[in-house]
Specification:
Number of domains: 3
Number of helices: 9
CATH topology of the largest domain: Jelly Rolls
Number of strands: 25
Low-confidence stretches: 36-59, 72-112
CATH class of the largest domain: Mainly Beta
Distance between the termini: 45 Å
Oligomer: single chain
Amino acid sequence: MKEQQFIKVLHKYVNGKANKNEKDLMEAYYRLLLEKSKLASKPGGEEDVEGELLENGLLNKIWDKIRDEEQVNAKELKPFSKTWQIAAMIAALIIIGIIFYTVVERRSSEKTSMAVSRQQDIDKIKPGSNKAVLILSNGKKIFLDNTSNGSLAKQGNVNVIKLNGGQLTYKGTYPAHDQKFQPVYNTLSTPRGGQYKLTLPDGTKVWLNAASSLHYPVAFSGQTRTVALTGEGYFEIAQDAQKPFIVQADKIKIEVLGTSFDVNSYKDEDEIKATLEEGSIKMTEGEKSILLKPGEKVSFDEKNGNMNVEKANVAADIAWKNGLFSFDNTNIKEIMARVSRWYDVKVVYATTELSHKCYSGVLPRYSEVSALLNMLEMTGTVHFKIENRTITVMN
């Protein structure tokens, strides 16, 4: 029963729905795991990390609190659902260590530079949360993190509604025969350190990552359903064979009928990327177009205009939507770009010698920034210093 509880609590944690006791458990478990991992990396230090953690008195006390709260709702537990299978895989990653490694060089480090960072500076940096600004067609701005749930506006026959858990939805449609209908457009924008989920009038679901925005009509009319994305978004498209769904991301047009995919089009990155999870999409730039199959990724290089298709690590590319950082042989600069956007911090480099270093690993996005940086430092190939809201990356 304890393992089953762990998976349930972990699932809530990575989705930002854990209560204080559950957060305490995950963070205590993680901190202890980190310390044990450091010991295990030293000569003669290998030991039964998991066993010692489970025997720890602090963890048992927190478990007792959670068990008391969960007994009332025990009947709701469904351990064999798809969601639970995903959570179980995540739990397995955490239990075996979530230890980062570098594919360029691996060596132990007796001391990390995080020690020179002031604790007060580390404490100032918090993980992102559900924050966004809705800009209505008339220019009115609604800051969703400071707004109560319920109806926010009525635009024609469509109601704009805020729901629990960082969600915005549209209810209602314009009559298809309404010749007087003129499309009106709203924009949902997330700041650095923010994320939000949106359900469009046709039922399409969109998850917006940090520092991203989606420009879309309040109701779809005409022969297509077209939206414009900046930053990163994950899409679950409602099927409508008569109206293809089109995502415009800078110079790139992505056309779909019904599918699930991720688009990364941050302005500060050299490439626009699309990863296909299910269905099919066609990516077009000028006269060039590529049809993607599930499990593939296409990258468009804005400097030379080249499109490249490769096999994707879909789980890693969409991990952010599921509350995780997931790196798969990822360059340090790309990792730190994600850190910068999610934790809303400035990142500077003390040397250019780090650009070739790549890392792999998995970590909950709701972890403190120090947890992620400490994991990277354990490779012994990179170090960090935090001052105010600036992270300096060093050899």
